[in-house]
Each structure stands twice: as structure tokens, then as C-alpha cells.
Amino acid sequence: MNKKQKKNLQRIIIALILVLILKLLPQFPTPVELVLYCIPYLVVGWDVLRKALLGIKNRQPFDECFLMAVATVGAFALGDYVEGCAVIIFYQIGELFQSVAVGKSRQSISSLMDIRPDYANIEGEDGKLEQVDPDDVEIGTVIVVQPGERVPIDGVIVEGASALNTAALTGESLPRDVQTGDEVISGCVNMTGLLKVKTTKEFGESTVSKILDLVENSSMKKARAENFITRFARVYTPAVCYGALALAFIPPIVLLLILCGMVLWVIAMPGGALLLWHYLGTGVQVGSASFNMVHLILIVSVFYITRAAITASRSFLNRVASQSYKIDKTLIPPMQTGITYGLWTLFALFTLKALGFGLENLAVIAGGLSVGIGFGMQTIVNNFLSGLILIFSRTLHEGDVIDVGNLQGVVRKISVRATTVETFDNAIIFVPNSEFVSNRLINWTRNGRIVRREVAIGVAYGTDPKLVERLLVEVAQSVPQIVRRPQPFVLFMDFADSTLNFVLRYWSDIGTATDAASAIRHRIVEVFAEHQVEIAFPQLDVHVIPQTPSLTRAEG
Fold first, then answer.
1. Could you read off the pLDDT of 510-534 as tens digits, one per residue?
2. What's the pLDDT tens digit per position in 60-69?
3. 153 within 8 A of 134, measured Cβ to Cβ
4. What are the beta bridge partners of residue 403?
5. What is the per-residue pLDDT across 365-420, written as a single tens digit (0 to 9) for each?
6. Containing H/E element for 469?
7. Are the CB atoms for 411 and 421 separated by under 8 Å?
8. Beta bridge partners of 509
9. Which SS3 state, helix, strand or coil, does residue 190 take?
């Protein structure tokens, strides 16, 4: 990297460190937090802001610097300081990678241009070497390549042996040994011996000429996709900026014009206010429900207000959970769900009231729902209520490891109808919530991720039990996946038919418990072999009792 690239790397590292420090520190008041996060932002992004301002000054604002400036300043305006710093840092990292890649490409091209030979040696009739232009050498001419010179034209060695350096062409670091009859390509450096090469191609068709031609003409022969991206970029940036401005200003302007028109109508026309109110109040009657333009405007407005309130409350609770160490993070999903259903319920009641439905009519709706539930919606309602029970009772959390039938998996999402469980085989199971409420539920991580596991082992009779217990404890302590508190311990379980049965019990993270069991078994085999402890297997001793001669004669 050059000096400028190293300086940019230092700026990126300093900004990253400052952002991490600010993220780990306790939360500051908003003005102080804004000032503190501006420090890493300006450290890494001052040049982007400068280029954006220069583009605006030169009436050419629509480039990537302008977009980065708008995105990051907008993030700071919304209070997302970490996101704003992260965007500018990642942008600068991408620019650094691009700069390094372009620099290496330029160095490669510069070094590649050095492989072009300036002359070719031809042996004259008197035995002296004559330097000629490679373009003048015909096919079949024997040229002489001395040590330290480049092979000017492709050909076949007719005399001599040497080692060729092909690093400039193939990237190989080791020299290539060649001898009489081997083919050589132009651009290689002859390192040791004198070579006489019979050319097989003209200079314009040789390897080095084709490589140089490709490099020189590469910028003029862009791919179709690259040309499309270049044209698209000229349109994309202005379209995004103008579209954002239109979305931000056109709806308020239109609404303001409508209001101004209404005001002018009311002022200019005698009785305009009464007439306007009459038109707005004239509605449509459908049964007992009636609605007019005012009702529709109110319903639409309250709908968007409700959505905005739900989004704001979710963002606020997520921020509280991420910045506060005192609140239980498992309370956040139930609180978000309760706020969401509560606000939508209020919106539904408001809509019914705006349409002219009395709250006493809800009894009729409730009666219809009860009939539907009685005839075919029991399962849906059961799963819905079970989902609410799971969410608010906090029996399950996202990320818990549970047993689903004979399978074990991780809870990925809890909704009001079903719970999504991902097994360790990467299969997704959608479990109705009623199964968790009505049946037995095994939650392995309800009290934490540390679980107890055991490994059973049987040794042969005659083995010292104390030695076995000591070795098993040492094995458990040598496995890194096993926690040190609580300590592993061994139980002498039984005198079996062929073995003395022991059980090693240990504590480990549930994600590594299976790996820990495998590591324990490997270590047991090694340690028992070192101490000559026999791992027993089922066996049966048969005792043959010889018959006495008297019994044999009696049976005969």
C-alpha cells in the first residue's frame, strides 16, 4: 500500500475503535451522544462530505459521495448514530480495497510491459550475432538467446539447454528447465545456458505480442454488463434523489393545496362553510352503518397513526433492550405483541364507532363468532390463544432448545398460530401452539444453556474402582468443552454380569455437549490403554465338569 492508502487504513481503524468504545460505554444524553459519535464519523468520512459539497458547488452533485452523505446524515438525524458511522466506515473499507486492487493492477501492467523484447539475435555467416527487429524475423529462422536475455519469439530449441524464468507470464516462482526439442514462449528470461531457437511464429502472433495487445485494448473492449452499469449509474443516482424529494414534498404540497382551495372557497362563496360541511357530511347508508368523507379521512388517518405508533414502540423497545443492562430482554417480545394487538384493537373499535356501529352491536358479532368457533374454528382459536399464552407466560423464548416429539431443535419464531422450530439437521418444523400448551414441553435452555450429560463405561472385574474414578475425572477435566463449575464427577453404578459399571457426569454448553461426549470417549480409550485398564465386554465362562467312571458305567 502507498502512503495515502496507509493513512486511510489508519483512519478506518481509529473510527472503528472509537465506535466500539462508545457502544460499550453507558448511554449518554442525546446531545452528548450526538457529539461523541460525530468524532469517529468525521475522522473517517470528512473527505466524503468534502467531495459531496464540491460536487454540489460544481453543479455535479449526483455521485456516490452525495448518496453516502445523504444516507449517513439522515441516519444521524433519525438518531441511528451507530448505523450512520457503520455505513461510512464500510464505504471507506470498500474504497480502500478498490484502491489497493487498482494499484496492484497498475503495477502488474507496468511490469508486464517490461516483457516486450527490443531485439532478436541472428547468427550471421561469419558467426557473429546481429541484432534485428523482432518484426523482421520470419518463421523458421534460428535465433540465439544468450543468458540474461528474453526469448523474443515463440519457437523450438534446436541446440542448447538452460533454465527459463517464466514468472512474468505464468506466475511460477521456480525456473523451468528446457533442452533441445522443447517449446519456448516469448517473454521468458534465459537464465543459464546459450539457446538456439527455431521460430514457429511471427512476432505479431507470438505469446508476448498477444498479451500486450490484450492489455492495451482491454479498456476499449468493455463487457456488455459493464457498459450497462455505466449507463445505469448515470440515471440511478438522480432518480433516487428526485424520487426521495418527490415522496417527501409532493404529498404535503398536494394536501396543502387542497386545504387552501377549501379555505378560498369558504371565503369567496357566501355560505361556503355550510355548503362544504354539507358535502363532506353527506354519506352513504348501508343498513345501520353510515359513513361519509370525513369518516373515511379519519379512518385512513388513524390507520397510519396506528401503524406509526406500533413501529415507533417496537423500535423504542428494541433500543431499550440493546442499551439497558437492567431490563430482562425476554420481556421485550411479549410487550411488543401486547402493544401491537392493543393498538389494533383500539383502531378496530374506533373504525366501528366511526361507521356508526354501536358497541352494543358487538354482542351480535360475538354471537356469530361463537357459532363459527363451535362449528369449525376450534383449532384456529385454540392455537391463537395458546400462542398468546406462550408469548405472555414466557414459557418459550426464541433461541431455546426444546424437544419436539423424538427430535430436538431451536425455537426460531413464536407467532400466534404456530411456532417455528429448526432441528439440528437443518429441517424446519411448524408446531401448532396448542401442542406446547396441552402436552408436555421439555425446554433444555429455560434456566440457561449449561446442561448435564453423562458417559457410561464398563471395566473388567479385578480393576481398581478408585483408579477408574480418578482417571475418568482427569479425562473430563482435560476436555475443553466441559465447564469447571459444577465439577464433573463419577458414580459407581452397578456390579453387572461381566463389567463394573461407572457413569461420568459432566456439565457443558448444550451446543457442544455432543462434541464433548465424543472427545471424552476418545480420551478414555487413550488413558485406559496407558494405565492398562480393560474396557469390558459381555462374556460367558463355560466350565466343563468331567464325568467319573462309576457314573459312566451306571448310565451304560
1. 888 888 899 999 999 999 988 888 8
2. 777 777 778 8
3. yes
4. 408
5. 666 666 655 555 666 667 677 777 776 767 777 788 888 777 888 888 877 778 88
6. helix 465-478
7. yes
8. 450
9. strand
CA distances from 139 to 6, 155, 202, 420 (A): 50, 9, 6, 73
> To which residue does cell 442499551 refer?
323
Confidence label for 491 from pLDDT (cuts 50, 70 and 90):
very high
Cell numbers placing 49: 462530505
Q: Which three cell numbers stand for residue 130?
A: 546481429
Quick one: the chain helix, strand, coil %, rounded to 5?
A: 55, 15, 25
Contact 151, 185 (CB under 8 A): yes
List the grid coordinates of 18: 472509537
Q: What is the largest CA-CA distance in the chain?
A: 144
In single-letter form, the type of residue at position 144 comes to V
d(CA 399, CA 396): 9
The two beta strands, 183-184 and 407-414, are unpaired
CA nearest to 365, candidates 390, 342, 348, 379 = 348
Secondary structure letter of residue 123 according to DSSP: E
CA 79 centroid distance within chain: 24
Tell me the pTM: 0.43
Instruction: Report helix, strand or coil for 425.
Output: coil
At residue 222, φ and ψ (nearest 5 deg) are -75, 150
Q: Does 31 sit behind a cis peptide bond, omega within 30 degrees of 0 on the bond before it?
A: no
Could you give the CA distance from residue 369 to residue 383 in angstroms, rounded to a whole number?
16
Amino acid in position 486: P
The pLDDT score that the predictor gives to residue 504 is 92
Range 158-195 burial, b when 16+ CB lie within 10 A, else e = eebebbbbbebbeeeeebbebeeeeebbbbbbbeeeeb
Q: Which of 69, 65, 18, 7 is nearest to 40 (CA)?
A: 18
- The separation between the first and the last C-alpha atoms of the chain, rounded to the nearest angstrom, is 105
**β-pair partners for 454:** 505
DSSP-based three-state secondary structure for 188: coil
- The label of the residue with cell 448444550 reads 510
The CB-side HSE value for 214 (13 A sphere, CA atoms) comes to 9
Q: Does position 503 have pLDDT exceeding 90, yes or no?
A: yes
Taking a C-beta distance cutoff of 8 angstroms, is the pair 89, 12 a contact?
A: yes
Summarize pLDDT for 408-420 with one digit per residue, the tens.
888 888 777 788 8
Give the Cα separation of 465 and 455 in Å (integer).
16
Question: pLDDT (tens digit, 9 = 90+) per residue, 428-442?
Answer: 888 887 777 777 878
- The C-alpha cell 538467446 sits at 145
CB 372 within 8 A of CB 419: no
